[in-house]
Design brief:
By secondary structure, this protein is an alpha/beta fold. The chain folds into four domains: 6-125, 3-Layer(aba) Sandwich (Rossmann fold), CATH 3.40.50.2300; 165-314, Rossmann fold (3-Layer(aba) Sandwich), CATH 3.40.50; 317-390, Orthogonal Bundle (Helicase, Ruva Protein, domain 3); 393-446, Arc Repressor Mutant, subunit A, CATH 1.10.10. The chain contains 19 helices and 16 strands. It has helices spanning 14-26, 37-47, 63-73, 88-96, 109-125, 150-162, 179-188, 210-215, 232-235, 251-263, 289-294, 300-306, 323-338, 347-354, 361-375, 383-390, 392-420, 425-432, 436-446; strands at 6-10, 30-34, 51-55, 79-83, 101-104, 169-172, 197-201, 216-217, 229-230, 240-244, 265-266, 275-276, 280-285, 309-312, 344-345, 380-381. The strands form five sheets. A five-stranded parallel beta sheet has the order 2-1-3-4-5, with helices on both faces. Strands 7-10-13-6-14 form a five-stranded parallel beta sheet. Strands 8-9 form a two-stranded antiparallel sheet. The longest helix is centred in the last third of the chain and has 29 residues, at 392-420.
Length: 451
């Protein structure tokens, strides 16, 4: 049981406030209620509660604005946001603006219990910190993470926390799960969102070009260097440099990357001026770097440098409930790109998608929908279309079996007509509705001989 502590609940729904008060009283907490945002902030300034539970939608002012006012007054305040809305942008903005946690309605009691306990313990253990200036999040519609499952909601919160600073982030996840998308969202939710986002594809880097690609070169550094070239690191100044599939770097390149990460300093090839990088570093891999370390294929010290903040991307098979939202999201964009009007999918087709293992994750789902839309004759994606895309081998086998059955039927029919006509080729061809040469070919094909 936690010691008696004051908790301020700000929500315009009386039943929500009363339910929360009953729950919090059972935990030994003292509860003060407020039905509007302005009343809630006034009470906050008067009593300085240990915890605030704040609704996003209030009748007089946005809960997000109240959150900003609370954090501006006390940067160490613990605020748990609650809302009936599940959009990515609001979650990220709330966490970025200082919310301790973000819980969706209908409220899960266990989730709320964990959040309240953690926030009060954090109050007892943490030192006061300086306030960081906030900026509104204007996340690009192009880079949007879609989903409402617990795994995705947790991902939104993590992105919000990561976006507060410029620490190095390591994103691990299967191919097609959305690692680069997450990197873009982190960048666009951060203070350097108006600065460049530069990608380095580690699968294509070769040792003799590593320095020139990353750090650039001076004029005359080598034959053909006719002018100064700025490298990827320099181009990303103030923004983000994204090392995609960092697990594919060979040991010599890992050592070179480690040296840069340790000092954030570099020199262009052929130059003598030491430059400094202030870009955020985000690395992604579809491999488990900890396992590569154990097998000697990845440097442990480099993993430590990359693993400051860690994000594990859930595969699609672990969040199948997000498939309908993903379908809706992708179809709207596919229709725009292909100038089509496919808006629905048969329930049995959706069931097939729920039962698929999705080894290619969200990228595979998107490609399946593109193929389905291109093959669709109307506004509805039908089951046979999805089945033929997801299980092409089984579809071909079915067609082959049907063809075999049809061949047997045709063979029996031709043999019967030949016997009825006493093997008169002209008469049999007339009855079958084919030419005599075609009949002879089919007799040979099916192995039909006069007995």
């Amino acid at each position: 049981m936690l010691p008696a502590t004051q908790v301020l609940v700000i929500d315009d729904e009386t039943t929500i406030r009363e339910s929360l008060e009953m729950f919090l009283h059972e935990k030994g907490l003292s509860v003060i209620q407020a039905g509007t945002g302005n009343d809630g902030f006034r009470v906050f300034t008067e009593i300085n509660p240990s915890l605030v539970i704040l609704d996003i939608r209030l009748p007089d002012i946005s809960g997000m604005e109240i959150l900003k006012k609370i954090m501006a007054r006390d940067s160490d305040a613990k605020v748990i946001m609650i809302t009936a809305y599940h959009d990515m942008e609001t979650t990220i903005e709330a966490m970025r603006n200082g919310a301790f946690d973000y819980i969706h309605k209908p409220i899960d009691v266990d989730e709320l219990d964990r959040a309240v306990t953690k926030s009060l313990l954090a109050n007892r253990c943490s030192d006061r910190t300086s306030q960081v200036d906030k900026e509104a999040n204007e996340e690009s519609d192009h880079h949007r993470i879609v989903g409402k499952t617990q795994a995705i909601r947790s991902l939104f919160k993590t992105i919000g926390l990561v976006s507060r600073h410029k620490e190095t982030v390591l994103i691990e996840g299967e191919t097609g799960s959305g690692k680069e998308l997450i990197a873009h969202v982190i960048h666009e939710s951060s203070f350097g969102k108006n600065r460049p986002f530069v990608t380095v594809d580690c699968t294509t880097l070769v040792e003799n070009l590593f320095e020139s690609e990353l750090f650039g070169y001076e004029k005359g550094a080598f034959t053909g260097a006719s002018e100064i070239k700025r490298g990827r690191v320099e181009l990303a100044q103030g923004g983000t440099i994204f090392f995609d599939e960092v697990g594919d770097l060979n040991p010599p390149l890992q050592a070179k990357l480690l040296r840069f990460l340790e000092s954030r300093e570099f020199t262009r090839l052929g130059g003598n001026q030491t430059l400094h990088s202030n870009a955020r570093i985000i690395a992604a891999t579809n491999r488990k770097l900890s396992e590569l370390v154990e097998t000697g294929k990845f440097r442990r010290d480099l993993l430590f440098r990359l693993h400051v903040m860690h994000i594990e991307v859930p595969p699609l098979r672990e969040r199948l409930e997000d498939i309908p939202d993903l379908i809706k999201f992708f179809l709207s964009r596919i229709n725009k790109n292909l100038m089509t009007k496919v808006t629905r999918i048969e329930q049995s087709a959706l069931d097939l998608m729920y039962n698929h293992s999705w080894p290619g994750n969200v990228r595979e789902l998107k490609n399946v929908l593109i193929k389905a839309v291109m093959e669709c004759q109307g506004s509805v994606i039908h089951t046979d279309c999805i089945e033929s895309i997801l299980h092409p081998k089984a579809r071909r086998q079915t067609k082959s079996n049907d063809s075999d059955k049809l061949g047997e039927i045709q063979k029996t029919h031709i043999a019967g007509v030949m016997n009825e006509t006493g093997w008169n080729i002209s008469e049999a061809a007339r009855r079958l509705g084919i030419s005599r040469p075609t009949l002879r070919k089919r007799l040979k094909l099916y192995g039909i001989y006069k007995k």
